[in-house]
Design brief:
CATH architecture: Alpha-Beta Complex
Radius of gyration: 17 Å
CATH class: Alpha Beta
Structural class: alpha/beta
Order of helices and strands: EEHEHHEEHEEHHHEHEHHH
Number of domains: 1
CATH superfamily: 2-enoyl-CoA Hydratase, Chain A, domain 1
Largest sheet: 6 strands, mixed
């Protein structure tokens, strides 16, 4: 069985690759369990200073596995609730996480990207929030992190339309730091990671913690609200498996017309 998560460590940089390419690295139950476990281990690993998170081509991450969710096998309600209430798809990490967005980042995959410290995008990258098209609510901080990145009005546009934003637009909007040729994506991220490694690591982590502490003054209550809404949505019958399955194929086809 192919590993669903690949990890390579070189020169104090760990590259973590979501590895379900045939389904665009969709987050099935196994991958949702494996990712935070791996990130926690790397955060404790004294041989690692920086983490690069990416996906196996052609996608970064298509979000939660809708086929699994639509079949009603996406984990128990308690497990889904625990994932939401955690507020982060890969758990608390003290080391810098660089998102190398190599293709589409959709819904839960978009939230995965937003939880990275900063993003470098391939020219093939694109981003979409399709929570409303699926009929579920965000639970990993999208309603807080997306407005921080692109502004409230653009965030509202993305969430209510479900439309894709291409890499160049993402750069113009401030969603990503750079856009590079596809083949240059990992080398660019590696060079930035090397720059980070060359610094005092206690200082780097303290600065990141200060950013987090400052943001927590306003974002933590907002993220708690998002988690409460997401859990209540599930309790009230939102995101039913049969409804997710009904919408799934239409969402896929619509995405293909927008991304190509």
């Amino acid at each position: 069985m192919e590993d669903i998560l690949l990890i390579e460590v070189s020169r104090r940089v760990a590259t973590v690759t979501l590895n379900r390419p045939t389904v665009r690295n969709a987050l099935n139950t196994a991958l949702r369990r494996a990712l935070p476990t791996a990130m926690e281990r790397l955060d404790r690993d004294e041989s690692v200073d920086v983490i690069i998170l990416t996906g196996a081509d052609p996608a970064f991450c298509a979000g939660v596995d809708l086929k699994e969710l639509g079949a009603g096998s996406g984990g128990s309600e308690g497990e889904v609730r625990q994932l939401i209430e955690g507020g982060n798809p890969f758990g608390p990490v003290t080391k810098p996480v660089v998102g190398a967005v190599n293709g589409v980042a959709v819904t839960g995959g978009f939230e995965l990207a937003l939880n990275c410290d900063f993003l470098i995008a391939s020219e093939r990258a694109s981003f979409a929030d399709t929570h409303a098209r699926v009929g579920i609510q965000p639970g990993w901080g999208l309603t807080v992190l997306l407005p921080q990145a692109v502004g409230l009005r653009r965030a509202r546009e993305m969430s209510t339309t479900g439309n894709f934003v291409d890499a160049r637009t993402a750069l113009e909007w401030g969603l990503v730091n750079r856009v590079v040729a596809h083949d240059d994506l990992l080398p660019t991220c590696g060079a930035l990671a090397a720059d980070i490694v060359s610094n005092d690591q206690a200082g780097v982590r303290r600065i990141l913690r200060t950013y987090a502490e400052a943001a927590a003054l306003t974002t933590v209550p907002a993220q708690r609200l998002e988690a409460e809404v997401s859990v209540e949505w599930l309790r009230s019958g939102g995101g039913r498996p049969e409804e997710v399955e009904r919408r799934r194929q239409a969402i896929i086809e619509r995405g293909r017309t927008q991304v190509g």
